[in-house]
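[09:14] KT: can someone run the structure on this one? pasting the chain below
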Amino acid sequence: MFEAIRSRLQLKLIFAFVLVLLIPTAIIAFYSISTTTGILAEKTRDDQLRSARRTAVSIENFLGRARSDVLMLSQAAPVNEYLTASDATTRQFVRAQRPHLQPNRIS
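[09:31] RB: done, structure tokens below
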């Protein structure tokens, strides 16, 4: 009889100790994971923002250096001739395609 009571008491004590150990451990683990996840997400966001800003500055610098070249090229005679010819070719193409673009009429 004492053996059965003693056995049940041992099981209850083991169960109590396991709960006393697992509950705080689970709470600490959850807190650590959520805190770490937040910190890593914030760090990643900051790194991406910093990278995007560097890229924007690099693009602005490139466009600033190329601005004078583009202005000079836009005023060059060969470029203007090409654009004029290209515009005329486009107009001819549109005129040629216009009959094909008309909706089909049912008679």
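[09:33] KT: thanks! The CA atoms of residues 35 and 82 lie 61 Å apart.
[09:34] RB: yep, looked fine to me
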